Amino acid sequence: MYITALFSIKGGVGKTSTAVNLAYLSAASGVRTLLWDLDPQAASSFYLRVDASIKGGIEGVFEKNTDKRIKGTDYPNFDLLPSDWSYRNLDLYFHAQKKPKQQIRRFLQEFSGNERTYAGAYEHIFIDCPPGFTLLSENILRAADDLLVPIIPTTLSLRTLDQLLEMTALPKCNHLRILPFLSMVDGRKRLHRDTMTQLQTQRRVLRSYIPYSSDVEKMGLRREPLVAYAPRSAAGHAFKLLWSELQNRVATLKQK
Ligand SMILES: Nc1ncnc2c1ncn2[C@@H]1O[C@H](COP(=O)(O)OP(=O)(O)O)[C@@H](O)[C@H]1O
Ligand SMILES: [Mg+2]
């Protein structure tokens, strides 16, 4: 089981759009894939036409039979653990548990360890995180293999990335690979082009980047992954390149 979290301190940077498209591409490649929509705003659940509510809320996920909470999507191999409005209280819930920073890790380990359950069979889990740096974020850092971080190339982005790298240099997070990539790149803007070059030369960002495109915004109208309805669009192509870059890294790690 491989865990990729779409993570940023900021909102509105492309986490959800990327999570939905990459999870779709993973599933389309034949990998049994689960997307966990951990943001109470429930955008991933909305895009995938799944009702954003869970019987029993947070307790229903962490303390009851998770299999029953998982929903299928319209696509083969692709399931969703939906959002629920109660997720806004995840920090409070974790805080009341014995090991508050290990909750997601423990949950996902049990989940994968139990081969008899439906949930045990996922090969790749994507987590769509809410913005911020909270107890939930610390849980994600300990649970994920990859942290995929969308960066919009603006003047403050270098600083934001450095802040994130500092914040994520935590104990018990040595296994974690932080993979920043450029998101919503507007090639017409000089500032975007310059910042992009600066980030690519001075920081370790992935080669693939997602261009700014109204095709991505249309996901809200279509309620489908962009790569499903416009696979040949510039942004669709970019998501596919990002997926193959990520896939190559996963394959390399599995060989080690
Ligand atoms: N590459 C892109 N080009 C244009 N609009 C985008 C792009 N990526 C995301 N958006 C739009 O920006 C908004 C925020 O994107 P979203 O993926 O929900 O970010 P986050 O999950 O980080 O809050 C959404 O309205 C989405 O449609
Ligand atoms: Mg989001």
What attributes characterize this protein structure?
256 residues, binds magnesium ion, binds adenosine-5'-diphosphate, single chain, Rossmann fold, alpha/beta, globular
User: Helix fraction?
Assistant: 40-55%
Note the beta-strand portion: 15-25%
Number of domains: 1
Number of strands: 8
Under the CATH scheme, the architecture is 3-Layer(aba) Sandwich
What is the CATH class designation? Alpha Beta
Between the first and last Cα atoms, what is the distance in angstroms? Answer: 15 Å
Say which molecules are bound, naming each kind only once. Answer: adenosine-5'-diphosphate, magnesium ion
Tertiary shape = globular
Give the low-confidence spans. none
Give a quick account of the main beta sheet: strands, pairing sense, barrel closure.
Answer: 8 strands, mixed
Element order: H for helix, E for strand: EHEHHEEHHEHEHEHEHHHH
Number of helices: 12
- The secondary structure category is alpha/beta
- Radius of gyration, CA atoms, in whole angstroms: 17 Å
CATH superfamily: P-loop containing nucleotide triphosphate hydrolases
Q: Averaged pLDDT, please?
A: 92
Order of strands in the sheet with most strands: 3-4-2-5-1-6-7-8
